[in-house]
Task: inverse folding
């Protein structure tokens, strides 16, 4: 007895998701498989992917460009939250999963499917992100994960596909597992599984090695309106174009590489390499602009929330009640976060060298030590007395004891 009549499968065109098509129909009795391939700026040709799914037995093969939606609805809110998992990883891959889950649910509802499926294994984070996001969006949909259950090796998976007339052209196999979208690339496995091994230069695509970077720095000015990036070097740009241009500029200078030991949700540590030039620079610039435009208490309180926000994205809780509540708080804080940040890109570093805003809380007249100083120095003595009073009382009581 089949688990589902009609299934929408998240489809990448790779071996696992291609084999999922005949596997779902022949092993699990699914009558119709509809594949969904989403372009999130990864640069793949979608038409060959669409045809490949049909050849593998898909009833329909859906493709679509969701890049604008990806940047506007997922990446930009995470920038407003300065989201860095474990204070390093800007969630470039993780942010794509709740969007893909939403696309799956939308397609399932449109085509009357009673289940959705993905090609995730049982060891990674993505299975959690898909399963939980789909449950949050439509708890009545079944979620199928054939690759998590079939127990086949890579060779066995290919052999299984060949039984149904599928061919997988022989090519030099990369030892790495790579995921890419407009925000960046994640690279793992192969030699990288030994955390002592230095990554080879060949794994990087979006960023230059230091030896190949220009010998002169480049300055970029990033404009923000209410926490959202809107311009680059004075030119207003749509979201996708802004990220694309900044990826190229920062990547040329070797900015955006991350090499970290990461704590996965499933309880294991993994060695991950990321390239996310634009995303890292935008978070750096946005956070600096907040320091100019937000009050101290809001800034400090928001920093605590940002870690929780990052963990929720990483752990697949984009569509959770807590994240929705934090979104409301973050959006309120962003009302004043408008201005321009100047960033110096040079030899693998991005350094903030200037910032300005019409909503700045910084006052040069109060901060200066010149003759223009307007700060009331005499008021400091009384303030210090009151501020230090608890400490003074504590000290006197301890001395008496």
Result:
């Amino acid at each position: 007895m089949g688990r589902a009549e009609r299934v929408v499968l998240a489809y990448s065109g790779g071996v696992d998701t291609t084999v999922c098509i005949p596997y779902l129909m022949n092993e699990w009795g699914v009558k119709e498989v509809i594949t969904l391939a989403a372009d999130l700026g990864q640069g793949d040709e979608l038409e060959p992917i669409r045809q490949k799914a049909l050849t593998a037995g898909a009833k329909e093969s859906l493709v679509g460009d969701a890049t604008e939606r990806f940047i506007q609805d997922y990446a930009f809110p995470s920038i407003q939250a300065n989201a860095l998992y474990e204070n390093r990883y800007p969630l470039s891959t993780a942010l794509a999963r709740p969007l893909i889950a939403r696309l799956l649910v939308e397609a399932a509802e449109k085509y009357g499917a009673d289940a959705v499926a993905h090609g995730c294994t049982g060891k990674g984070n993505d299975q959690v992100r898909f399963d939980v996001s789909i449950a949050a969006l439509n708890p009545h949909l079944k979620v199928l994960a054939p690759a998590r259950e079939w127990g086949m090796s890579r060779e066995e998976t290919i052999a299984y596909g060949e039984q149904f007339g599928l061919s997988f052209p022989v090519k030099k196999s990369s030892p790495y597992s790579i995921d890419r979208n407009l925000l960046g690339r994640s690279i793992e496995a192969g030699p990288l599984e030994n955390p002592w091994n230095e990554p080879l230069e060949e794994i990087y695509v979006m960023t230059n090695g230091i030896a190949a970077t220009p010998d002169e720095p480049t300055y970029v000015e990033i404009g923000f309106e209410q926490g959202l990036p809107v311009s680059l070097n004075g030119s207003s740009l749509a979201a996708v174009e802004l990220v694309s241009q900044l990826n190229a500029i920062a990547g040329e200078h070797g900015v955006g590489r991350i090499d970290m030991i990461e704590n996965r949700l499933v309880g294991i540590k993994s060695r991950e390499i990321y390239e996310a030039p634009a995303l890292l620079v935008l978070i750096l610039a946005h956070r600096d602009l907040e320091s100019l435009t937000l009050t101290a208490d809001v800034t400090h309180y928001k920093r605590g929330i940002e870690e929780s926000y990052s963990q929720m994205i990483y752990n697949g809780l984009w569509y959770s009640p807590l994240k929705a509540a934090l979104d409301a708080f973050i959006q309120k804080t962003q009302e004043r976060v408008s201005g321009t940040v100047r960033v110096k890109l040079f030899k693998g570093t991005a350094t903030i060298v200037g910032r300005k805003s019409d909503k700045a809380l910084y006052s040069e007249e109060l901060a200066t030590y010149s003759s223009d100083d307007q700060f009331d120095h005499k008021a400091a003595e009384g303030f210090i007395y009151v501020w230090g009073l608890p400490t003074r009382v504590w000290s006197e009581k301890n001395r008496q004891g």
